[in-house]
Structure formats: structure tokens, C-alpha cells
Design brief:
The chain is of the alpha/beta class and 447 residues long. The protein folds into two domains: 3-55 and 375-427, Roll (Urease, subunit C, domain 1), CATH 2.30.40; 57-366, TIM Barrel, CATH 3.20.20. It has 14 helices and 18 strands. It has an eight-stranded parallel sheet. Helix 11 crosses helix 13 (399-407). The mean pLDDT is 95. The chain binds zinc ion.
Amino acid sequence: MSRLFLKSPLAILAEGADGGIVVESGKIVELVPAGGTPARPVDETVDASAHVVLPGLVNTHHHFYQTLTRAHPQAIDRELFPWLKALYPIWARLDPPSFRLAVRLALTELLMSGCTTAADHHYLFPGGLDDAIDIDIEAEEAQALGIRVTLTRGSMDLSQKDGGLPPDDVVQDADAILSDSERLIARYHDRSEGAMTQIALAPCSPFSVTRRLMIESAALAERHDCRLHTHLGETKDENRFCEETFGCRPVDYLEEVGWLGPRTWLAHGIHFTTEECRRLGAHKVGVCHCPASNAVLASGFCPVNELKAAGSPVGLGVDGSASNDASNMIEAARHALMVGRLNYRSAEAITARDALTMASEGSAVCLGREDIGRIAVGRQADLALFTLDELRFSGAHDPVAALVLCGATRADRVMVKGTWRVLDGMPVGIDVARLREEHGRAARRFA
Ligand code: ZN
């Protein structure tokens, strides 16, 4: 088996690896201290003296299809509910070929930003996609790019005619959702160490899903040992909806439907009281912080530090590309630092290393993965290497902090499971110019 030595990094986000790391069979097998050499001979040495080495970043919330409707004139400058109402009819035009390009583009963009594992929350299955092949399309595209994924079988079964927010033509029947969920779990959910594809179940939100679907999804997840994901605590409108419809607050509702447990990770988690943060933490419910989306939609601040202190794993997500509107994980770390410091009005509330750890280890825990998210012996060899060659880094002194504070946007090299998937800043095997052209053309259908 070939052994690769990543030698003498400029800086590395790991303890005891200042001399580099050794990768073999897709895993990290040795950390080399400063001035040291690998314990056994290596087959290849890569000079990393110009690179800041991070664990591969892990994105825990996205909606890939939304790359087709970024900066859409009918949706910009709106908050969540009016934003959704403006976009649902546009998203109802989604078709398999456009969807495939949206997925390819989002995954490529993520990979180039240093992301090695991505979760997607796909809940939109309009007419043309009712064979529910979209998750299959996502699995194929991820495999072709060599990026690790947690694909969530999202769902909506509560439309306007039943008191929900989405129009009737974008929701599905609960039985169809549950049987497709079982099919996808059987086909793609790999629970083994180093898995490249996992499935999670993700009813969309309290205002687009029935109580029955929440309860039965939880039971299905329990039966097949997969994770549960949903939007919760995103806006005050959602609080009002829950109070009016269920007679309780979102976290109470979560408990009622059997979701308050370590299998669950939530997107956003903004409008929680201190007591609710304690309850979520006590049950180890994970939260994906989406700072850019929360800022753009003016949703509010996620109480990241309260949740962490209470015991919740907190990860980072770019969120859908119609609210971010980008899919850049290293930028998300910068957003988390800025939004977090503003929220707490404290420059110490969140450091550059806190933001990067949230984007890697915190996210990995949200996805229930102990084999990724850190540079440590035995972990998967998922790595993101950044250079500081651009003008924006010139004069920077702390190389790790510089990535966040000076605003890195692009990794120079990205490794997933021991294989280089980005080299010299470009994704291996992808014609970026062609992808931009094809995706841009597909997006014109959604004008
Ligand atoms: Zn979302």
C-alpha cells in the first residue's frame, strides 16, 4: 500500500503534527512532530511548506437545487416566509437535467472551498421528479467527484390546502415519502467506517410537514440507524406557526414527535430560549449554524456558545444557495466568526480556530461521524490545503487565523479518503468553464 508523507506544513490544525502527516489506505496513519521524520519509509513526499493544512471541512446544511435561483429578483430582500412563497412556484419547475447540473455545481463549489463531506437537504419533488430519482442523481454526482456525502431524503406533505406554507403541487404523499426513504436507505446508507455515502431522513420544517410524517420518519431512522434532520428555530414566523397550529413552541413539538435525541441535527436553531438550549444540549441534539443565510434573510443569531455549553454538537452549513447565495465552506467559517462576535458583542466569543473547528469536527459530530472531521491517527485522510499566495494574505502572521480573518475563498489542494480531488486550485476531472456555461444556461429556465 502506498504511503504518502505531507511534509512540513506551513501550519496545521492538529496537535503534534507540525512535521507533517502520513497517509496510507485512505487514512491518517501517523502524525510527525516538528523536525521529525516518518517512522517507516514512504513512497511519496509532498512538500507542504507553503500550505496551511486543515481537516476537510464538513458542510451540514445545503439545498443544492437552489444554485439555480441565486440572487433571484423575485426573492431578494425578503425574510424567510415571503422568500419561500416567492420561490416555491419557481422551484416547482425543477426537472432532472437541471437538478443534476445544480448538484454538480454545488458539490464542485464546495470541494474547491475545502469541503470534503457535504450534507444536502433535498425536499422538493415536483411533478417531473416524482419518480424520486433526485437522491440517486445526487449519489451519482458525488461519486463522480469523489466527495463524501450525507444525502437527506427531505420531504414535505403539508401544503396550503391543509394549513401548510408550500403550494399543493410541490408536496408528496406521506406513504410515498416513507417508502422512498426505505428504498434509499437500503440502496445507499453505508454505516461502515470511511463510508462515502450515507442517507438521513429530513422532513423539511414544522410548517411544511405533518405530525405523522415526523413521527414515522423518527421510527424509520431508529430502525435503520440513520440520522434525522430538519429546519427548526429559524424565524419568529415559525414560532408563531407552531404556537397557532400545535399549541406549543418548536422545541416542544420536536419532543412530542420523538425527535429530541442524539440522532437529530437541526438547521439554524436561532429562536431558542436558554431553557430550550439546555434541553437540546441535554439530549445531544446537534445544530447546524448557517451564519450567511441567517444574515441575508435577517433571521437572527444562533446561540452557538449556549448550545455548545449545554452539550449540543454545533456544526456549520452554507445553507441553500438561494439564501447564502454561495456554497463556500471556508467563507462560512469567516461568517461564523463575524456573526458570532456581533451576536455576543465580544471579540473573544468565537476565535478563528473555533470557527474552523465548528466547520470540521463540530459538523462531523452533527452527522454522527467519528471517522472524519479531525486530523488524528485513524481518521479518514480528508484534508484541505490552502496557500497564502494571494495579495489578501500578504503581511499575515498567524497562518491559521489568516485563512479566516483575511478571507480565504479557495483551497489549493483537497484530499478525500487519501485521493487528491482538487489540485492547483482546480477540481480533478471537471471542466469548470463548461460547468459554469451549462449550469448558467439551465438556470435561465427559472428566471
Ligand atoms: Zn435550509
